[in-house]
Amino acid sequence: MISFRDVRQVFRLSGKGDGSAARNRELVALQDVNVDIQAGQFVALVGASGCGKTTMLNMLAGLVEPTHGEVLLDGRAPRLPNMDIGYMFARDALLPWRTARKNVELPLETRGWGRKERRERAEEMLELVGLKGRESQYRLQLSQGMRQRVALARTLAPDPSLLLMDEPFAALDARTKLTLQAEFLRIWENNQNGDRRKTVIFVTHDLQEAVLLADRVIVMLPHPGRIAEDRVIDLPRPRAELLGELQFTKEFQDITHGLFERLEGAIGDRGADAAKQGETTTP
Question: What percent of the chain has pLDDT over 70?
Fold first, then answer.
């Protein structure tokens, strides 16, 4: 379903100073990225800030075109608008003048759904994420966890086949985060048949979250953004009801530790290379 082929992304930055070199600096966000993702997989991109995770999501959404190489979605370059993609952010981005139900209805309005169908679908999705009875409440009347539930319902409402999720649970406290992780995983795992099978690209800084949720973890390094490790997570499914216990198992800890060592080792190698060249590198 998804292919990144020899992808390199360069952003030109404008800065102060004399001369063209000072005014036009370049930032290499991605370098030599090659990866294929099958339809229906849950793939986590994990790494430090600046390693190009969000840039990859934006490429799939059609918001950014690669400087070099190609990104393919079902064999074609992504283009806007694509109504078969759902994009969920770290912040809820709810419209404060709309109720929870009206926020969930928003993507359905843009797709031309009728009023009755929009209302029924929004109420169905709010019930699915545990917010039945909260339909008429506004953003300020909801806790942060509830807002993210509304955002999740809004993302899922039009039934997209591809979900792009940019640290959707990062701003939550530990208990609420675990609850939302389990809630989302339950929804995803319960819809794995036929046309309802969804592909998930999940960005996170949290290595444990990546291993806990995903079928496959891609570890990325910054400066420039590149892939250090691409590993299949051999943990049983369904997991939604077992997240609290799973993270304390030896299998989970071994996988997480192995990926952490790979990440730390790659950063160390990068620092050694920079030292040889007389450079200063900040991981």
Answer: 88
